[in-house]
Records
---
Amino acid sequence: MNPGTELGEFLRARRALVAPDGNGGPRRRVPGLRREEVAALAGVSADYYTRLEQGRHKRPSESVLDALARALQLDETATRHLFDLARAVAAPQRAAPPEVQRVRPSLHRLLESFTAHPAFVRGRRTEVLAMNPLAAFLLADLPARPAGERSLIRWAFLDPEARTRYVDWEKVASSMVGTLRLDAGRHPHDPLLAQLVGELSVHSEQFRTWWADHRVVERRDGIKRLDHPLVGRLDICYEALDVTGVADQTLFVYTTEPGSESEARLRTLAAWVHEESPDPAPPPAAAPDRPGTDPAGR
């Protein structure tokens, strides 16, 4: 992915989403604002803006980026993405081997302690780095899969089970595409991300369509509706928490409304997980007393 191209495509995609003010002018052949209209709203020349879209201007200032964000009506997440793209254009880097992400042992222990709530840690490229047994039972045991097949977005688009598991599959999957776009803006030279985008583009027309619109999404909380083959429909509330002290790791914890049918069904799943897990090893047996000794060893 070329940073200059990515910035230009993002600007074009976003101006297409902005409705021009109705002024009784001629009908437009394409939706959204024209280049010169964006330039006027941002207070720059049409030539300058055109060079930005064409990837011929490498160092837009922060004030220009702020003005473009206002002109294109970007929210906070999309504005941050715009700055990430511009930063990548201004400071190009060579592709480097991606750093292997690891979850701290203490965080693994925290996940295991959530016996009543599904929980997992998501890293770069929506890869699931760690998962407690209940989350693996509710969704899929992604960390157990081969390297390159552990991302939520790959599972959502390429595994038919995911389409039946998510009641609102299109909403969830398109949101994952927006999350992957954010990751691409922060890490434009990641070869594994480019490989993942290529694989999904080849196998999914829906992914290609959603990837091309350049929308970005960052979900911190919300509700997911799931259909589990063993217990049926569950309405899951989720919270996404950044893992402190490490970059690009997010802890997701799933809960249900107290007293709800979903809570009862999740409790049933948790009971099955507990029953299927191996029993803990018994404590070592005490050595038998030797003849002629008392319990104190005398």
Note: Strands lie at 119-122, 128-131, 221-228, 232-242, 250-255.
---
Amino acid sequence: MELGVIGLGRMGQIVVNRSLDAGHDVVAFDLSAEATATAAEAGATAADSVADLCDRLGEEKRVWLMVPAGDAVDATLADLGPHLDADDVVVDGGNSQYQASVRRAEETDAAYLDCGTSGGPASAEEGFSLMVGGPEWAYEALVPVFDAVATGPDGHDRMGESGSGHYVKMVHNGVEYALMQAYGEGFELLTEGRYDLDMESVARTWNNGAVIRSWLLELCEEAFREEGSDLGDVADHVAGGSTGTWTVQEALEQEVPVPIIYQALAERFDSRNEGRFSRRLANRLRYGFGRHEVARRSDGE
């Protein structure tokens, strides 16, 4: 296939690289000339504008957006608009709010696929998990690329109509918050408990056959190996986007109780106050799966 990719940050570059590795042709553009050059070095055709990218694609254009959620998506769609028609497909692979995706699907002449993307930069080799919403024909048209970017055929699926992909990803992130909080609290109890324990050893043992084994637990092991059992100077400050808040808001609207997800979100908000080991681990875990910057404690804290 021939694919246009707009937005060449860490995630966008992975879309480019995995598509190229699968034998697809890629035309790439980013506002950063350096990022565009990096994609060209990997084998993509560099474009110097959105219009140039569209000119370089065939009659049936397939364009993947990996730009920050919000205004950047709308601005890019506005730039794409004059170059697209009903036979074309646009994929929004960012963490857009699902209501915005529904609106964009209605406003965009091309078929619009909202694609929740999980795995982060750490999944560059294994591939992502892709949750896709939008027209079935458009999803089927992109299956060869989804196979390449995801872990394979089982790593992606069409969730339903427009908005459903980002809706599922929103709830996914709420669950992620809760899991990170549960691991953090468990290791905090072990740290403050009765025995002098090697946390890396605990995490490694748990992750080999135990009921609670997972990739997040592998990242716990990595964190303790690299930072020490006391997590060194990792700060009690857990950053994050809006998806956890959106999840709780949706639960309130649907009158579905999500006390664990809500409490995990509240802990993130409260992490502006230093002191909790569980939040320090959550801070470090975000680096593990997303390569987000680790907030560090200053000397003496």
Note: The CA atoms of residues 75 and 81 lie 10 Å apart.
